[in-house]
Amino acid sequence: MNAPDHPDTVRAAEAAPPPPPRRRGLSDRALAWVFIAPVIALLLAINIFPLLWNIWLSFTNYRANRPGMDVRGMGTGNYERLLGQDDVWESLQHTAHFVTWSLFFQVVIGFALAWLINKQFRGSGLWTTLIVLPMMLSPAVVGTFWTYLYQPQVGIFNAIVGFFTGSTHFSMIADRDLAPWAIVLVDTWMWTPFVMLICLAGLRSVPQDLYEAAEIDGASPLRQFVTITLPMVLPFLMLAVLFRGIENFKMFDMVVELTSGGPGSVTELANIFLKREAFEKWRTGYAAALAVILFVTVFGFANIYVKAWNTVKQR
Amino acid sequence: MKRLMTAACALAMGLGVSAAEAQEGELTLCWAAWDPANALQELGKDFTQKTGIEMNYEFVPWTSFADRFLNELNSQGKLCDLMIGDSQWLGLGAEFGHYVQLNDFFEQEGISMDDFLPAGVYNYATWPKGSENYWALPAMGDAVGYVYRKDWFAMPEIREAFQAEYGRELAPPETWDELLETAKFFQGREIDGQTRYGIALYTERGSEGITMGVTNALYAWDVEYDNPDQPYEMEGYFNSEAAVEALEAYKELYECCTPPGHSDAYMVDNLDAYKSGQTAMQMNFFAFFPGIAKDEAVGGEVSGFFVNPSAKTEASVLGGQGISVVSYSDNKDDALEYIKWFAQPDVQQRWWDLGGYSVHKAVLEDPGFVDSQPFAGQFLEAMSNVRDFWQEPTYAELLQSMQRHMHDYIVADQGTAQEALDATIEDWDFTFESVGKK
Hints:
The complex is a heterodimer of chains A (about 325) and B (about 450).
Chain A: H1 7-15, H2 28-57, H3 77-83, H4 86-117, H5 124-132, H6 139-149, H7 156-165, H8 179-204, H9 208-216, H10 221-249, H11 253-259, H12 270-280, H13 284-314
Chain B: H1 2-23, E1 26-32, H2 35-51, E2 54-60, H3 62-74, E3 82-86, H4 90-95, H5 103-109, H6 118-125, E4 137-149, H7 150-153, H8 156-166, H9 176-186, E5 190-191, E6 194-195, E7 197-200, H10 209-220, H11 241-257, H12 267-275, E8 279-285, H13 289-294, E9 303-307, E10 316-325, H14 332-342, H15 345-354, H16 361-364, H17 369-372, H18 376-383, E11 386-387, H19 395-410, H20 417-434
C-alpha cells in the first residue's frame, strides 16, 4: 500500500483525466423520459386504462344506463353465462365462417390477380387502378351500395343470377343459407385488391436472376413457382392474411348495413352481438366479459401467427 | 399588444353574452323524423307567436331513434328540453329520473287527464301502468292499421276472380283468415300488366320492426305477456297455444304473400312497397295515413283503410307517444309552458287538422271527427282496443330478445313457433331475474 504522498500515487493522480464538468440541466436519460412521458401517459389513458377498466367491469353486474345503481361483483358469473349460452357460440361460429372464407377467397383471388398484373401487359396500370377502387370506399357505403345490388326486384346482382337460374324470387340477403355467403362476397370484392397489392409487392421483390438461373438448370414454370415464387412471396402473403384476419374478426359496419345480422341471426357476427348486448340491452358487465374473450382470442391467434410468420421470414 | 388582447377578450365576452342571450327563450324538442313531426313543426309556430319562445327540433330517423335518444337520456344530456319518446320508455324515464313527474304541474294548471282518451292516458302518460303518476302528456295517438288498394278491390274482373276462388265478396279483411286469403289472392297476380304481391308486413331485424308486426297477430289471438295475477310469470301465457297459432299465422303470411326480399322491412319499406304499386295491402302506423291520403299516386279514392283483423278478439298494436319534460333540461319552465299550451283543446284540434293524432276527447268526440279524414273512423276503432309491448325500464333488452327469436323463426325459418316463444321467455326470465323483478 502506497502512502498518499508516495511519488507513484502522485504520478497516477496526475495521469488520470479530470472528471467531466457537471452539466447543468437534464441528463440524457431524464430528457428521454420527458419526451416519452406524454406518449406513455396517452397510451395509459386511452389503451391500458380502458382495458383494465373493461376487465374489472366484466366481473360486475354494471349497467351503463342505470345511474347510481349498486354495482355488485359477479365473480366469474358473466363468463360462465357467456360460455354456456348458445347465442354466443353461434355468433362466434358465424364470425369464424366469415373470417375463414373471406380470407380464403381474398388470398386465392388476390394472389391470382397479382400474378396477372405482374406480367406487365398493356394497360396493366389501368387495371390495377380499377381493381383497387373498392378498397378506397367506406365499408358502410359498400354495405348500403350492395343492399341495392342484392335487391330482388331491381338489383343487378340478383338479375344476373336470376337470368342464369330462372329464379324470380332469388334474394341473397333474405335467404338463411345464402346470406352468410352474401357478406363473404362483398368483403371479398372490397378487400381482395389489398391482398393483391401486397402480393404484387412480394412478386416484384423476387430477383429476376433466380428465375434465369432456374431456367438454365431446366426447371419447369411450375417448379419455378413452387421453389422460388411461393417461398419468396409467402412472408408477404402471410402479412396480408394477418391484417385481413384481424380486420375481418372486427367486422361490424358493412354487415350491419347489409343484413343487420339477419335473416334471424345467421350473419350476427361476434361484434354485432357484442354491440347489441352493450348498447341496446345495456348489459355492460356481460358485454365487457365478451369483449375480454374476443380480445384474448384475437391476441392469442395473432401472437401464434406472428411467431409462425417470423419463422417463415427467417428461412 | 396588451390593448389588442383586451379588445379580443371583450369581443369574446360580448359574443359569449350574445350566445347566452340567444339561448334564452328557446326550446329543443326531440322526436322521430316522420310526417307528424313536420305537422308538429308547423304547429309550433303558433306557440312561438304566442309566447316568443323559439322552437328547435331534433328529428332522428326511426331506425336510429331509440339508440340516439336513449343514449341522450342515459348520458343525462341537455340537448332535449322536450322529448316525445316511445310509450315503452315511460318506465325507464320514470324510474331512472330522466323525465319530470307532471302531477303537481297538471294540478296547478288545471290540466285533467280525464279530458284525454283513457287508452292514451294509460299507455302514453302513466308509470307504473294504471297508476295516477303522470310522466308525459298524451301527444301522438297511434296504432298499427292497414291500407289497401281500393281501386284494385273495385275492379270487376278482380272481384269476379276472387268470388270464384273463395266464394265470397272481395272486401277489406276483418279476420286473419280473410287477410291471408286476400293476400294469397293478390300474390303474383298481374294487374295493369305488372306483377303484384299480397301485403307488405313488418319484418325488420335491427330495431323493433318484426316485434311490432308479430304482436298484431299475438294481440288478435288475445295473447297476454304474463299472468295478470302474477306479474312476470310468462309460462303458459306468452307461449300458449294461441300464441303458437298466432305466430304460425304471421309466418305463413310472410312466406306466402310478401314481395320478394321483404325480409328486413319496417315503416318506410312498407310505404315504398305500397306506393310503388308492388302490394295490394300494407301494414303500417296510422301516422302515415294522412300522407297516403294526400299522395298523388295512391291518395284519394285509390286507397282504403282497415284495422287489425281479429282472430279471437279485436285488438291493435299501440304506436304513438307522450310528450315529456327532460329532467336534465335547463329550460324546464319554458318546456312546461309548451306542455300547458299543447294541452289546450283548440291546439289539439289544430294538431289533428295538420296531420298529427290528438287523443283529446274534445277532438275525438266532435260529431264531425269520423268524417274529417278517410281513416278517422278506423283510427278511433283501433285506439279503443290498443295494447302495448312491455313498458318496463328494461324494455330495450326485452325487445332485442324478441326481435332475435321472432326473426329467427319467421324470416330465417329456424325452429318452431313454440321454440321461438319458449326461447323468448327464457331470455325475459333472465332479464327480470337480473333486475330483481322475479
